[in-house]
């Protein structure tokens, strides 16, 4: 699943840095997702986010993930920053 997510993100955005982690093991058995699968955490660095609000950035990511959201992906925590913002951290 990590590879599929990475491929979709790279297909939609010019990414200079990507950290993607499967966090599913920490959520096994919680309400609405008894298997715990489909929980991911990511840091996406892309200048495609320049001039966009947080909501607009997240929409770009959700659009890239498409039908994985609400299916194979149960929860997707993301930090979306430009290269300038990333270097300033």
Describe it for me?
33% of the residues lie in helices and 26% in strands. 16% of the residues are buried. It is built from three helices and three strands. With 89 residues, the chain is α+β, with helices and mostly antiparallel strands. The protein has one domain: GMP Synthetase, Chain A, domain 3 (2-Layer Sandwich), CATH 3.30.300. Helix 1 (2-12) packs across helix 2 (54-65). It has a three-stranded mixed β-sheet with strand order 1-2-3.
Which overall shape is indicated by the principal axes computed on the Cα atoms? globular
> Would you tell me the structural class of the helices and strands?
alpha+beta
Number of domains: 1
Helix content range:
25-40%
Q: In CATH terms, what is the architecture?
A: 2-Layer Sandwich
Number of contiguous helices = 3
SS strand fraction: 25-35%
- Average pLDDT figure: 89
Q: In terms of per-residue confidence, which ranges show pLDDT below 50 for 5 or more consecutive residues?
A: none
Q: Kindly state the number of beta strands.
A: 3
Q: CATH superfamily, please?
A: BolA-like
CATH topology (fold) name = GMP Synthetase, Chain A, domain 3
Which sequence of strands runs across the widest sheet?
1-2-3
Q: Span from first to last CA?
A: 29 Å
The SSE order reads HEEHEH
Specify Rg, calculated over alpha carbons: 13 Å
Please summarize the sheet with the most strands: 3 strands, mixed
């Amino acid at each position: 699943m990590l590879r599929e997510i990475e491929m979709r993100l790279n297909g939609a955005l010019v990414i200079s840095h990507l950290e993607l982690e499967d966090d599913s093991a920490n959520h096994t058995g919680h309400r609405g997702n008894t298997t715990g699968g489909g929980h991911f955490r990511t840091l996406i660095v892309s200048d495609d986010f320049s001039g966009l609000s947080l909501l607009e950035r997240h929409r770009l990511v959700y659009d890239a993930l498409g039908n994985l959201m609400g299916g194979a992906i149960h929860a997707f925590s993301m930090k979306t920053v430009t290269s300038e913002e990333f270097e300033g951290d």
